[in-house]
Design a protein that fits this description.
The complex is a heterodimer of chains A (450) and B (412). Chain A has 450 residues and is α+β, with helices and mostly antiparallel strands. Chain A has helices at 58-61, 109-119, 143-146, 205-213, 227-232, 257-269, 272-279, 293-296, 300-304, 329-344, 372-383, 395-407; strands at residues 2-4, 32-36, 66-68, 74-76, 79-84, 90-95, 124-128, 131-135, 156-158, 161-163, 168-174, 178-183, 196-200, 219-222, 236-250, 285-286, 320-324, 349-353, 360-366, 411-423, 427-428, 444-445. In chain A, strands 1, 14, 15, 16, 17, 18, 19 and 20 form an 8-stranded mixed β-sheet that branches. A 4-stranded mixed β-sheet of chain A has the order 2-13-12-11, with no helix packed on it. In chain A, strands 5-6-8-7 form a 4-stranded antiparallel β-sheet, covered by helices on one side. In chain A, strand 7 (124-128) and strand 8 form a beta hairpin. The longest helix of chain A has 16 residues, at 329-344. In chain B, a hairpin with a 2-residue loop joins strand 10 and strand 11 (192-200). Helix content of chain B is 8%, strand content 48%. Chain B has 2 domains: 40-132, 3-Layer(aba) Sandwich (Rossmann fold), CATH 3.40.50.10610; 137-410, YVTN repeat-like/Quinoprotein amine dehydrogenase (Methylamine Dehydrogenase, Chain H). Chain B has helices at 40-54, 71-87; strands at 3-4, 57-65, 90-93, 100-107, 112-119, 125-132, 147-157, 161-167, 174-179, 182-189, 192-200, 214-218, 222-227, 230-235, 241-246, 251-252, 261-264, 271-279, 282-284, 288-295, 300-306, 311-314, 319-320, 330-334, 341-348, 353-361, 364-373, 378-383, 389-394, 401-410. The chains are: A alpha+beta (450), B mainly beta (412).
Chain lengths: 450, 412
């Protein structure tokens, strides 16, 4: 088993490379890479994506003005440089020269402005020479990072075609089922090594592993609890840093001090270590913070300040209904474990699959961005909480906003889990990426011929 | 106000013509890459924040390390913090005092994070944080053996290095480093290379992925640069400049600017297989990634690392394809060992790539000496005029590209 993972403590110093990236044998051009994904987008237009959608597919076609690199550092992409005015409400981005859309037409400031306006109706976006000016109604120090989100990928409609500037262009799309991409021969960053990418969409964990086993897919996603088994089968497993939060989210705020105390007791009573070690087979880390420590550096403060509330009386604790998404078997196991732990501290908690009348929901929330402020906002949105606003990018402000969310009593973090992929034989140059992004343009197949 | 500007160095130096003269092999300098840590500024910031909460007086200080700082660094950082607190009138005493300060050295993906939890009793805890930019470096050199492959670090940088070469002669010595955007010129001074000038590379078409390129010393005008579909040459003006033009001119395959040249695919990462002038009677071979020349008394034997993974040994008449565990990168190097010329060939290891020297007797390459291992993948290997080669590694620990001068040295 070859396993490439992000160490949890020394994140910033290590870039592990899978499959012997560019090692000894230079990359070959040609062939088709087959990938399988759970994601099943009914559309490809980035402007229609939510904050957390389109992570793997969209950036291959549509590129942002900025991009996070494999270390999670924000880098210029379609923008060569930028600056902001006082207050971070007016930003100006100068475009990289020599970039064309897939049909060969040049990327212009007008096209970029139109694309960003479609995705962000609240922004005032205008073209100014070879630059784009973005004005927001409130302080937005995270704007450069926001522009790296897939939903802010630059797209242009040309008749019934959707064009981007990315390393691949759309060849065929069957909504929710399959996507075929062809290499962009004139890509400004260098033509991808593979000629095409075939993505099978909407494949569950099991279907994906079977596809890998049968040689129908070269790259598949692996459920956290399956990583160990998949690795034992001799496959190369590539893991990101933990980029998904498993949490309980209450549908409403606590209406009394007793109810608040009950929630504290529930949080204190959950055996997170068992959830990670047993149910998730050691994949991930127990979490009492919303954001993982690799992202903030301060997650331990929430664990240190956790207070055990002891048992609550049965009279205090009315029955709570916990709902979970039954499409993933692990969710049911986690929900049942939470119910057992709740009973241990005197709380009646019943589980139900995907019920609308739940008091609390078990959520698996993608962290959306390596930028912690954006990730926290995405979690708040997904959990139905008030979305925190930031004046800057300081660690202290981030800590204060995260603490407020936790103190609202509406979210109980359980675990942070990494994203894992299994890589088939012959796939070379697959990079371990801090945030688990698929950088397919750098991948090549060892059986290829020029 | 937040600003991001891409780096575009444009520096100028007047190069005297005598610098071009002479073919004496230069000593290769090693640039020290270790960075000294300076904890003064963050210690001052955190101390000021702590003192603003506690005021002057006694505090009990507890320090935890949850970062990749080494114990000695933790001690240094703790000492710096204690010193700064003392300056502000905060005296550190044994625990049990009213004010407890717990400092945690942590880190995230972007930086170190120093956290102070100030507890003044009464359950009211104040949390203070200071972000500290962090950097780590690493380096290693291979072991000794009867036939050593000796390598010396020439230069490292964040962007991919395609080739590097130390210009022969000249005092001080000069180093040229080629990447996809520029040729950078450095001069040797006090054991370090100091940047002196940068020559931007102009190109109309996007570079192919896995960009390759090489710098070749030129007696007439100092140096030429070969890139896919582009050729550049130094222009002896004052200051020195460089001119580039779109061209599919063949690249020199051996060490110098003369001899056999190969046509390089302008949109890929390999030589097409067509060479000029031919090797003996042959001028077309299978596409190859790299070539190594082994001069013999009557002819030159060439090794070609083909794109399909095979190795061809050609002398103008014969084309032999021995089964060899070679990677894509090979280069001929001159030494005082064995037949005087060896081939350096890359190979994959568990953790990175290695280079091993091979002697070729009767068209049967045989390994000599032990392999030298690199931490990461080798991205380039080019023969140089002085008989050495330059190898470029991507260091997985730092993410930087490192150019090494590589030479085969006999057992002393």
């Amino acid at each position: 088993m070859r396993r490439i993972a992000w160490p949890l403590f020394v994140i910033s110093s290590i870039l592990a490379l899978a499959g012997g990236t560019a090692a000894a044998v230079r990359p070959h051009y040609g062939d088709t890479l087959h990938v399988a994904l759970r994601e099943a987008p009914p559309f490809l237009d980035p402007a229609q994506l939510s904050v957390a959608q389109g992570k793997q597919i969209s950036p291959l076609i549509f590129e942002g003005l900025t991009q996070f690199d494999a270390h999670g550092r924000l880098q210029p992409h379609l923008a060569a440089r930028w600056e902001s005015g006082v207050g971070n409400q007016r930003w100006q981005f100068w475009l990289r020269p020599g970039v064309n859309f897939h049909d060969g037409t040049p990327l212009t400031a007008d096209a970029v402005a139109a694309s960003l306006r479609a995705a962000n109706p609240a922004w005032r976006v205008s073209a100014s020479g070879d630059s784009v000016v973005i004005e927001t109604t409130a302080f937005d120090p995270q704007l450069p990072a926001e522009l790296a989100l897939p939903r802010n990928g630059i797209a242009r409609h040309a008749g019934d075609k959707l064009l981007g500037t990315g390393p691949f262009q759309i060849s065929q799309f069957q909504p929710g089922r399959a996507l075929v991409l062809a290499a962009n021969e004139d890509y400004w960053g260098g033509r991808p090594f593979v000629d095409s990418v075939v993505a099978l969409l909407g494949q569950n964990w099991r279907q994906q592993l079977i596809a890998l086993e049968l040689g129908k897919a070269d790259v598949v996603e692996v459920a956290p609890e399956q990583v160990r088994r998949a690795g034992l089968s001799g496959r190369t497993i590539v893991e990101s840093a933990p980029n998904e939060l498993i949490a309980l989210a209450f549908t409403r705020g606590a209406e009394s001090a007793e109810e608040a105390r009950l929630r504290q007791a529930l949080s204190a009573g959950i055996d997170r270590a068992s959830i990670v070690d047993v149910l998730l087979q050691g994949q991930g880390e127990a979490a009492e913070a919303i954001l993982p420590n690799w992202m903030t550096g301060y997650a331990m403060l929430f664990a240190q300040t956790g207070q055990r509330s002891g048992n609550v009386t049965a009279a205090t604790a009315g029955a709570i209904t916990l709902s979970y998404d039954a499409s993933d078997p692990a969710n049911q196991l986690i929900a049942e474990r939470v119910a057992v732990n709740a009973r241990d501290v005197g709380i009646q908690l019943q589980t139900a699959a995907s019920t609308a009348n739940a008091d609390v929901r078990l959520l698996r929330i993608p962290l959306a961005s390596p930028q912690p402020q954006l990730a926290l906002q995405a979690v708040a949105t997904a959990a139905g909480l008030a979305v925190p606003q930031f004046q800057g990018t300081s660690a202290e402000e981030l800590y204060a906003r995260e603490k407020e969310l936790l103190q609202s009593g509406r979210i109980i973090p359980l675990a942070h889990v990494p994203q894992a992929s299994a890589i088939g034989p012959g796939v070379e140059g697959w990079r371990a990426d801090l945030f688990g992004d698929y950088r397919v343009a750098d991948v090549w197949l060892s059986g290829s011929r020029p | 106000m937040a600003v991001y500007n891409s780096q575009h160095p444009h520096m100028f130096l007047r190069i005297s013509k005598p610098l071009m003269l002479g073919m004496a092999m230069g000593l290769l300098l090693t640039v020290p890459v270790a960075l000294g840590a300076d904890w003064g500024a963050p210690a001052r910031s955190l101390a000021q924040e702590i003192a603003a909460v506690t005021g002057p007086g006694a505090v009990a200080l507890e320090v935890n390390n949850r970062s990749s700082l080494r114990p000695a660094e933790v001690e240094q950082a703790r000492g710096a913090l204690a010193a700064e607190l003392a300056v502000l009138g905060v005296k550190i005493v044994e625990s049990g005092q009213a004010v407890n300060v717990r400092v945690t050295f942590s880190e995230n993906a972007q930086s170190y994070l120093w956290i102070a939890q100030v507890n003044q009793g009464g359950g009211d805890e104040k949390v203070l944080m200071v972000s500290v930019p962090g950097a780590r470096t690493a380096g290693s050199f291979g072991p000794s053996s009867p036939l050593n492959i000796h390598r010396a670090l020439l230069w490292s940088q964040q962007s991919p290095i395609l080739d590097a070469t130390v210009l022969p002669g000249g005092n001080p010595e000069h180093l040229l480093v080629l990447d996809g955007e520029k040729v950078a010129l450095f001069s040797g001074e006090g054991g370090q290379w100091r940047p002196e000038q940068a020559f931007p590379i102009t190109h109309a078409r996007p570079w192919p992925r896995d960009l390759r390129g090489r710098i070749v010393f030129n007696r007439e005008h100092l140096f030429d640069v070969y890139l896919p579909g582009v050729v550049c040459g130094a222009v002896l003006s004052s200051p020195l400049s460089m001119a580039c033009h779109e061209a599919d001119d063949p690249w020199p395959l051996g060490a110098g600017s003369s001899g056999v040249r190969g046509f390089f695919s302008p949109a890929r990462n390999f030589f097409t297989g067509v060479v000029a002038p031919g090797i003996g009677k042959q001028n077309a071979f299978a596409p190859f990634y790299s070539a190594a020349a082994l001069p013999r008394a009557q002819y030159v034997l060439w090794a070609l690392a083909a794109v399909d993974g095979s190795v061809h040994l050609v002398d103008g008449v014969n084309d032999v394809t021995p089964r060899l565990p070679w990677g894509s990168e090979i280069a001929g190097v001159k030494s005082n060992c064995g037949s005087g010329w060896q081939i350096l060939a890359s190979a994959r290891t568990e953790t990175g790539d290695s280079l091993r020297a091979y002697e070729v007797m009767d068209r049967e390459p045989a390994p000599v000496g032990i392999a030298t291992e690199f931490n990461g993948p080798l991205n380039a290997l080019w023969s140089k005029d002085d008989g050495s080669a330059v190898a470029v590694e991507r260091n997985p620990d730092t993410g930087k590209y490192e150019a090494y001068s590589v030479a085969v040295i006999c057992h002393q």
